[in-house]
Amino acid sequence: MRLAGQAKMGYYPTPPALLPLLCKCLQRGGAGLLRIFDPCAGEGHAVKALGEHLDAITYGIELDRERGITAQRNLYECLIGDCQTAMVSRHFASLLLLNPPYDWSAAVGALDKSERYERTFLRDTVKALRPGGVLIYLIPLRRLDRKVARMLSHRFEEIRLFRLPDELYRRFHQVVVFGVARAKLKPDEAVHRYLVDAGAGRAVVPPLPEEPDFVYSVPPSLKVKPLVFRTNEIDPEELEKELASQGLHDRLLEMWSPSRNARKLEAIMPLRSGHLAQLIACGLVGGVVRDRDGLRPLLVKGTTKKEVDRRIEHEKGKERHIETERFVITVNAYDRDGCLITIQ
Ligand SMILES: C[S@@+](CC[C@H](N)C(=O)[O-])C[C@H]1O[C@@H](n2cnc3c(N)ncnc32)[C@H](O)[C@@H]1O
Question: Which numbered atom of ligand 1 lies nearest the CA of 39?
Answer without folding.
Answer: 21
